[in-house]
Design a protein that fits this description.
Layout: E1 2-5, E2 15-18, H1 21-27, E3 34-35, H2 43-54, E4 59-64, E5 72-82, E6 88-96, H3 98-133, H4 140-172, E7 180-183, H5 184-194, H6 196-201, E8 205-209, E9 217-220, H7 222-238, E10 245-254, H8 256-259, E11 268-273, E12 282-289, H9 323-333, E13 337-342, E14 348-355
Parallel strand pairs: 8-10
Antiparallel strand pairs: 1-2, 1-6, 2-3, 4-5, 5-6, 7-9, 10-12, 11-13, 12-14, 13-14
Helix pairs in contact: 3-4, 4-9, 5-7, 7-9
The structure holds adenosine-5'-triphosphate (ATP) and magnesium ion (MG).
């Protein structure tokens, strides 16, 4: 915008005499000229403009537009000198920095969460070391028990660090398309085999419904595809009661609509990621458990880093809330889709689908 002014100190008398299309749209200006305060009321912005008009000083300020979206803009004012009619002129440039600010906030939250997650087991380790050097020194039974707990905490920390590293690796090459040829059914079978012991331990069984191997190939990163299947199967195991069955169903040759079709009409449903291409065939994996399930309000937040449902945070289901964030990033790199359907107390079903070769 070009701003013109006659009198110093008359902050509300500043007029815009030129406004480009995007400023018009952003501030919903009705005309090409008018009073600046009808568009921007923020006193700091008005002052910044005045410094350019009468102080011949270039300056800038951040301000928030309010409204539902709460956009954050940077206002930069440059002096343009005097017009032929004697009025003063300044150029006001506004840049929308909302996305950059949000990204910054996300990074800050992420660091805060990561440090917090690391600090808890670390504090507990220090506490036990102190106890072991103190009054538990001569008590072999207590010593054994404490060492067991310490080992658990150390393992938790190392799992967390692994997950964080894996997440940042995945993010780093998220824009690089994967290139291996991956047999999706074979990958799923491998995961089921690898988790067999743990499942037996928890008295949960896997039931698979899959086409033959050699029929469903995708262009993927094999380790990452395995990681997706593993994270979903691992969650199903973790959130299922003893005696229940987890179903893994694989189906190939589907359109995007078929791959994402509703499975359980009664359940809450949330699309966590949808593919960005048309005319592609997909192979779909659906992991369905009969476990604790999820209330609807949790569904949109599941892929946020460190998001765990309240009440599951401590207790018998260890985890850091990174698994589904990792799944989302990997599926995104593969340009696939990700959907969750669940009902509290009635199990959950997680669906991922990948473009086929
Ligand atoms: N099959 C499921 N049934 C019920 N709740 C689930 C299921 N899968 C995930 N959740 C909920 O979603 C949350 C996030 O899952 P995610 O896999 O990201 O983290 P996690 O399993 O807690 O920890 P991690 O996978 O990092 O070890 C879980 O804490 C749990 O509350
Ligand atoms: Mg998990």
């Amino acid at each position: 915008m070009v701003i013109s002014a006659q009198e110093p100190d008359d902050l509300i008398g500043r007029r815009f005499i030129l406004i480009n299309a995007s400023a018009r749209e952003t501030f919903q200006a009705q005309a090409e000229t008018g009073l600046l305060v009808t568009l921007i009321r923020d006193p700091q912005v008005l002052e910044t403009v005045d410094e350019a008009l009468f102080g011949a000083i270039e300056s800038e300020t951040l301000f928030s537009m309010g409204g539902a979206q709460g956009r954050i803009l940077r206002a930069m004012a440059k002096p343009l000198g005097e017009a032929p009619d004697g009025s003063r002129l300044a150029l006001l440039v506004l840049r929308d920095e909302t996305d950059a600010r949000r990204a910054e906030q996300t990074r800050a939250d992420f660091l805060a969460n990561a440090s917090h997650e690391l600090r808890t087991p670390l504090a507990s380790l220090s506490g036990f070391i102190e106890t072991l050097r103190g009054h538990a020194k001569e008590d072999p039974k207590a010593r054994d028990r404490f060492l067991g707990i310490m080992q658990g905490q150390a393992e938790r920390m190392s799992r967390l660090v692994d997950d964080l590293m894996s997440l940042s690796r995945i993010e780093m090459n998220e824009h690089v398309p994967p290139s291996d040829r991956v047999d999706f059914v074979a990958a799923t079978q491998d995961v089921v085999d690898a988790l067999a012991l743990m499942a037996a331990d928890r008295q949960v069984s896997f039931a698979t419904d899959m086409p033959a191997r050699d029929g469903t190939f995708i262009t993927g990163d094999r380790d990452q595809v395995i990681q997706v299947i593993q994270n979903l199967a691992d969650n199903a195991l973790k959130y299922s009661p003893a005696g229940s069955t987890i179903r893994l169903a694989v189906e190939g040759g589907l359109t995007a609509e078929q791959a994402a079709e509703t499975w359980n009409l009664e359940a809450g449903r949330m699309t966590l990621l949808s593919p960005d291409r048309a005319g592609v065939r997909y192979v779909r994996l659906r992991v369905t458990d009969a476990g604790v399930g999820l209330a609807r309000e949790h569904l949109p937040r599941l892929t946020e880093r460190f998001y765990r449902v309240e009440g599951q945070k401590s207790g018998e289901r260890p985890g850091t809330g990174l698994g589904l964030a990792i799944v989302k990033h990997i599926v995104n790199r593969h340009r696939g889709g990700f959907v969750v359907e669940s009902q509290e107390g009635k199990g959950a079903s997680f669906t991922v689908y990948f473009p086929m070769i």
